[in-house]
Write a structure and sequence with these properties.
The chain has 319 residues and is of the alpha/beta class. It has a single domain, classed as TIM Barrel, CATH 3.20.20. 43% of the residues lie in helices and 15% in strands. The protein has 15 helices and ten strands. The protein has helices at 28-31, 38-51, 66-75, 97-109, 125-130, 132-137, 151-163, 181-184, 187-193, 224-228, 231-236, 238-251, 255-265, 277-287, 293-306, and strands at 3-6, 9-12, 15-17, 55-57, 82-87, 114-119, 141-147, 168-174, 197-201, 271-273. Strand 1 (3-6) and strand 2 (9-12) form a beta hairpin. Helix 2 (38-51) packs across helix 3, helix 2 (38-51) runs parallel beside helix 14 and helix 12 (238-251) crosses helix 13. The longest helix is centred in the first third of the chain and has 14 residues, at 38-51. It starts with a strand and ends in a 13-residue tail after the last helix.
Length: 319
């Protein structure tokens, strides 16, 4: 498998997301319409680790601790796992909140430090970025990252960390064939030019770009993805799905694997949500695909023709 450098650490070219692991507020049942527990997910974890995918992305707010708790039960006593988790700031929190969140995350995960710790949103960038510094000095955080930040906010966070002698190592934003705001705003180029790894989430738009769902086979209603990708929106994606399927046929893979390979080709480390063992097989295939320049152009042309750009409720324009 192709490896990527994050500071002094080698990581896989694809990270695995656990947003849909466990239930509760912001959990798998409310966002994705599923109901997954340790028994369902342990085979997924084992298959991933056997394949070399050992970077796991979670957050304290995913199921309000449920995702971290499940992941923690799997990684107990293992030394070959890399963990990425997040602090989600709110205006009413005390200055101690990042450390308190991190300590709670470490307890749920059963570990002493995290490899990547993210400021999950750009509320009061100066205030919250500064709170990463003592956590890095203590050794509880190895690499600092920011998520859902625009270019100006990324540069501000970077300058705050560098003044204290630490780099900004990673940026995590929503990015897919249907939502390229981070690219259009110059964020990906900036990251590539400043040794910052760009981690896109929702590369498959929560399943809308897998080929599994369509206007004839829609998502479950009453969920985040069911509302964002309703029957009307799914119908608009037919042209893009045909292009994904056509290119997938050339490589003898699934459409989802082409969408993932596209994100890798753009110089990013995509975070792919995994809930079934076959998702790991898809990641293995996607990591080995090298799309041609023309295939990338064809995919982006088809995506633009859909007229669909689904910005999540928590996001702002990156421009």
């Amino acid at each position: 498998m192709k490896m990527v450098q994050l500071g002094n650490t080698e990581i896989p070219s694809i990270a695995l997301g656990t947003w849909s692991w466990g239930n509760g507020i912001n959990g798998g049942n409310t966002v994705f319409g599923n109901d997954l527990n340790e028994k369902d997910l342990k085979p997924v974890f084992d298959a991933a680790m056997d394949a070399g995918f050992n970077l796991w992305d979670t957050a304290a707010v995913y199921g309000m601790g449920a995702s971290e708790t499940i992941l923690g039960s799997f990684i107990k006593d293992r030394k070959d796992v890399l963990i990425s988790t997040k602090f989600t700031p709110r205006p009413d929190q005390s200055d101690d909140a990042p450390e308190e969140f991190l300590n709670n995350s470490l307890n749920r995960l059963g570990i002493d430090y995290v490899d990547i710790y993210w400021i999950h949103s750009p509320q009061d960038v100066k205030r919250w970025t500064e709170k990463l510094i003592p956590l890095m000095k203590s050794g509880k955080v190895k690499y600092a990252g920011v998520s859902n930040h625009n270019l100006e906010e990324i540069k501000l966070a970077q300058s705050i960390l560098e003044e204290a002698g630490f780099p900004l190592s990673a940026v995590q934003n929503h990015y897919s064939l249907l939502y390229r705001s981070s690219e259009e705003a110059g964020i990906i180029d900036y990251c590539n030019n400043n040794r910052i790894l760009f981690f896109p989430y929702m590369v498959l738009e929560q399943g809308a770009l897998t080929g599994k769902y369509s206007a004839q086979n829609p998502f479950k209603t009453g969920t985040r993805r069911g509302d964002a990708f309703n029957v009307e929106v799914l119908a608009k994606l037919e042209g893009l799905m045909k292009e994904l399927s056509k290119i997938a046929g050339k490589y003898n893979v699934e459409p989802s694997e082409i969408a993932i390979a596209w994100a890798i080709a753009k110089g990013s480390v995509p975070i792919i949500g995994v809930t079934k063992p076959y998702h790991i097989k898809s990641a293995i295939s996607a990591a080995d695909i090298a799309l041609s320049e023309q295939e990338i152009i064809d995919l982006e042309t088809a995506a633009k023709a859909t007229g669909v750009e689904v910005k999540a409720a928590w996001e702002k324009n990156m421009k």
